[in-house]
Amino acid sequence: MIGKKDLEHIGWLARLELSEEDKEKYAPKLNSILDYFGEIDKADTEGVEPLYHVLPMSNVFREDVPIKSLTQEEALSNAPKNQDGFIKAPRMM
Amino acid sequence: MYENPDGVMIGLEVHVQLNRLKTKVFCGCTTDYHSDPPNSHVCPVCLGLPGSLPVINKKAVEAAIKVGLALNCTVEEHTQFYRKNYYYPDLPKGFQITQYDFPISSGGYITIEGEDGEHRVGITRAHMEEDPGRLVHEGTIDKSKYTLIDYNRSGMALLEVVSEPDMRSPKEARRYLDKLRNILEYLDIFDGDLEGALRVDANISIKGGQRAEIKNISSHKGAERALLFEIVRQKNVLRRGGVVVQETRHFDEAREITLSMRSKEEAHDYRYFPEPDLVPLKISGWAPAIKATLPELPDARRLRFVEQYGIMDDHAKALTSELKFAIFYEDVAKKVDPKMAAVWVCDVLKGELNYRNLTIEAFKKEHILSVIDLLLNKKITEDGAVDIIRTLLDKGGSPFEIVKEKGLLKVEGDIVSTAAEEAIKENPRAVADYRAGKEKALNSLVGAVMKKTKGRADARTAREMLLDRLDKS
Fold this sequence. Notes:
The complex is a heterodimer of chains A (about 90) and B (about 475). By secondary structure, chain A is mainly alpha-helical. Chain A contains three helices and three strands. In chain B, the strands form three sheets. A nine-stranded mixed β-sheet of chain B has the order 3-6-7-10-1-11-12-13-14. A three-stranded antiparallel β-sheet of chain B has the order 5-4-15, with no helix packed on it.
């Protein structure tokens, strides 16, 4: 069961600020998803190879050949703040 | 048998940048950004822009297999990528593409010179991942007001080599790093001189405490210092009756101390899940062909040097511990007496280079050949040879010019003989001291002979001639 504490933790991990109202709304929704996984868990998977990846493919490669990169101006064009060619972000600690 | 009184256990996670590749791991941006402006080698993939798709560099996979094989690992049948989710400005996507339970290779070892002889350090796994961007902090990491980000490094191919906690001292950790770097250089997949080429996180615990993970170590010496500090810190905590808690610590290189990070992310919750944009790899079949192309590695070369050239194992070890030295020595050894070459390249030249903080590129092969040639033909003394090597390193020139300029040509035996007789006559006190049993007095007599011959006499010959005369009279 996902309680209020779990919800706050999940919110923090996704950097989402959740209001009390949000928490009340999301808890039952997430719990119903979990319940459904509970249903899936009941399936008999004896002798079934686990699915490692959804695509039935392997070994897709690229050769080690350079392409043209963006210019510095293009690279910085979506950054809210920049300085001396660097992207500027809030402090971390 | 090494006792390991404090129960020190050290495991290292080494991030190796595969910087010999032309392009990054999941995009075609070039890897030669080191002297370029920030954010000038980036594209939608390595900037994590929406809708961009990674495609893996085949050469990066080959290089990873090469390293795995060189570290005695097994190349796995099935390998795939995961998203490791966390928020930090060096990751533009909010996750790092890395590997998790299906690394490309695992279960190997490296042999190092341990506290009590040969010591095997287990390699848990060597897995592929992308390098995050580079962060620049104004001031120190804990006081900086903001962070500057350069994504040129973002998406560089990394190999994370994870060891077992098999090292029992900071010295062993350093030797492990030296050995690993040496192997990587032999493999030609990595240029260790480039900034950020090899980065280390260290896990360390002592008996009675939990482990600390130390981040931000940027050199082998730094690793040793950080670990030495950490052992003292953990012992002090325990001595005061405290508890050594599991935590991440930051190494402050300037102050040579480690600091607790106390970050909210401490309880890691990475929520790994398979990277949907990259399909699994089934490449264990490549291993035999790649193995066949592996170059001779340091340990094998060391054995061969001993067998082929008849040199001492200590010399072979020192010569092969750096690829460039090994090549230099071998070129020289093919042309002159290999044993003599070992002494002059390993004992003399290497020492003189280290003393000046120079690399082998600072010295020409032809020059060491000339020096050895002059010695073999008894044209110069050993002291003269050292003098030539030093002069070449400090001022340049050629061995023959230096011999001429400095008058280093060895003088004839009878001149030394005369000088020895004179020295004995002129220094009755030293002679008396020597006869009274002061062995050291002989040195001042040898010095007198050298002075008379302006250093061109062979010190050993001078000594013998003096002894000969002193014992007779």
